[in-house]
Specification:
Layout lengths: L13 H20 L5 H4 L1 E9 L10 E4 L4 E4 L5 E7 L2 E8 L6 E7 L5 E7 L21 H12 L4 E3 L1 H6 L5 H8 L3 E4 L3 E4 L13 H4 L5 E2 L1 E4 L2 E4 L7 H5 L19 E7 L18 E6 L3
Parallel strand pairs: 1-7, 12-15
Antiparallel strand pairs: 1-4, 2-3, 2-5, 5-6, 8-14, 9-10, 10-11, 12-13, 14-15
Length: 295
């Protein structure tokens, strides 16, 4: 078909059709892009309840914390909680409420379905600090006995025999009792306390037949209530002691001091471990301090 000027006009019919087609295509794409989003596009959902473990009753006001994204939620009156728009993947959850133990959980959030978790809280158990008990020491009026107890409980050296031991063994002689409780000592002839650290002291073996036979004669220095009661004579004076010199003979601890009169004893094997103010020239035979009972 031609127009008045002899030109073909058949192609004019197809141009409007092409225009219409091009106009419709963008509208179609726009309609498709405006369709409802899928669950994967909206993220993962976590919901559930917090209840008491004892009776499954709801716990309102519990704090549900997603530690991985630092989001908090609070349960309602039915104990329910809900989180929307979460990133799929591992999550750490912590649930706490005053008066209950903390509940913790880990899970892998999925966007393909709702993630439902119920947490049962247990009543908080009271945790007490460790309590260390120790039997109370004797309450003494005497300053000597109070100081004795302080040294005994300090554990800084020496060997101690407390009042309770003396009271349980009042039928024993003092020599036998001390020798059985104080290591490194023995009761010579059953009545004199000597140190076993030395077999014989100095030149004693020249005058003492027992020492020359191997028996110890290292006599322990003794204090009674802080006052010097006995100290062994120098080795050179042993001969004179055997001839009856006054004050040189060791005490007979089977009769001179009674167990029933004592409240404490402490022994120091040498001056290096004795407390300040309790050093004595014991010639390496040890020092014994005896403390009498209060009246």
């Amino acid at each position: 078909m031609r127009d008045l000027f002899g030109r073909r006009v058949g192609s004019c019919v197809t141009r409007p059709a092409l225009a219409i087609t091009l106009a419709v295509t963008p509208l179609t794409l726009l309609a498709q892009s405006g369709s409802a989003p899928t669950r994967a596009d909206s993220g993962a959902v976590l919901r559930g309840r917090v209840v008491r473990q004892s009776d499954a009753s709801p716990v309102a006001g519990a704090d549900v914390w997603l530690a991985s994204v630092d989001r908090h939620g609070t349960t309602d009156s039915s104990g329910a909680y809900r989180f929307d728009g979460l990133h799929p993947g591992p999550a750490l959850i912590q649930v706490r409420h005053l008066g209950f133990d903390v509940a913790r959980d880990t899970l892998n959030l999925s966007a393909a379905h709702e993630n439902i978790r119920t947490y049962a809280l247990t009543l908080q158990s009271t945790k007490l600090d460790t309590v260390r008990t120790r039997a109370p020491g004797e309450k003494y009026i005497s300053p000597h006995l109070r100081a004795f107890e302080e040294r005994r409980l300090s554990g800084q050296g020496g060997h101690f025999v407390p009042d309770s031991v003396f009271r349980r063994n009042e039928g024993m002689t003092l020599a036998a009792l001390l020798a059985s409780y104080i290591p490194g000592t023995t009761a010579l002839a059953g009545k004199t306390l000597v140190s076993t650290r030395k077999a014989c002291m100095g030149l004693t073996f020249l005058h003492n037949k027992a020492c020359s036979a191997g028996a110890p004669d290292c006599y322990v220095t003794i204090y009674l209530d802080g006052a010097l009661y006995y100290t062994p004579p120098p080795a050179e004076a042993v001969g004179a002691a055997e001839n009856g010199s006054i004050g040189s003979a060791p005490p007979d601890l089977t009769r001179e001091v009674l167990v029933s009169n004592l409240a404490g004893a402490e022994y120091y094997a040498d001056g290096t471990i004795a407390p300040s103010g309790m050093h004595s020239n014991d010639q390496g035979c040890g020092t014994l301090w005896l403390w009498t009972r209060e009246r």
